[in-house]
Amino acid sequence: MSYRIGSGVDFHKLAEGRDLWLGGVKIPHHKGATGHSDADVLLHAICDALLGALSLGDIGVHFPDTDDSFKNIDSKILLKRTFDLIKKEGYSVVNIDTTICLELPKIKPYVGAMRKVIAAILEVTEKDVSIKATTTEKMGFAGREEGLVAYATLLLFLKDS
Ligand SMILES: [Zn+2]
């Protein structure tokens, strides 16, 4: 079998006074995501999709929030370490499709930078990284700006097969 599909989802609360990191990019906003790491919901969803594609568990297994070495860690490091696990198994990424659900801020101006960051880490081109965004039309926790969600789906390809 040369192809493997993976999916990931992640949630974080939003709070005043935290930095908002999304897709490895710091976005100016009065609220940011809370969590043990920098709480980058998009990069965490991609980590889970990578791990899921090879049935390697989830991000909590590999980077437990009880481990102080991961406190406030840059999630780009977590994504790089996760991708190293995938590479060790001989796989590379074909493409990634993601969706972020949040009410505010508008992330469109930052999507290009996010795609660049993610493509560089996962050794694909920017064209292979899709980042979409939607509001929930003010419904639920995302609509009330209490939190945000990211979904990721990706395809891996076994090289030399
Ligand atoms: Zn997370």
Largest sheet: 5 strands, mixed
Attached small molecules: zinc ion
Give the termini separation. Answer: 8 Å
Element pattern in H and E? EEEEHHHEHEHE
Strand content: 25-35%
* Overall morphology: globular
Q: Could you report the average pLDDT, rounded to the nearest whole number?
A: 95
- Number of DSSP strands? 7
Strand order of the largest sheet: 4-1-7-5-6
Structural class: alpha+beta
**What's the number of helices?**
5
As residue ranges, the low-confidence spans are: none
Rounded to the nearest angstrom, the radius of gyration is 15 Å
Q: Helix share of residues?
A: 25-40%
Explain the overall architecture.
This protein is an alpha+beta fold and 161 residues long. It is built from 5 helices and 7 strands; from the N terminus they run ββββαααβαβαβ. The strands form 2 sheets. It has a 5-stranded mixed beta sheet with strand order 4-1-7-5-6. The chain has a two-stranded antiparallel sheet with strand order 2-3. β5 (91-101), α4 (108-122) and β6 (129-134) form a beta-alpha-beta unit. α1 (41-53) packs parallel to α3. The longest helix has 15 residues, at 108-122. The protein is globular, with a radius of gyration of 15 Å. The N and C termini lie close together (8 Å). The relative contact order is 0.25. The model has no long low-confidence stretch (mean pLDDT 95). The protein binds zinc ion. Zinc ion (ZN) binds next to β1 and α1.
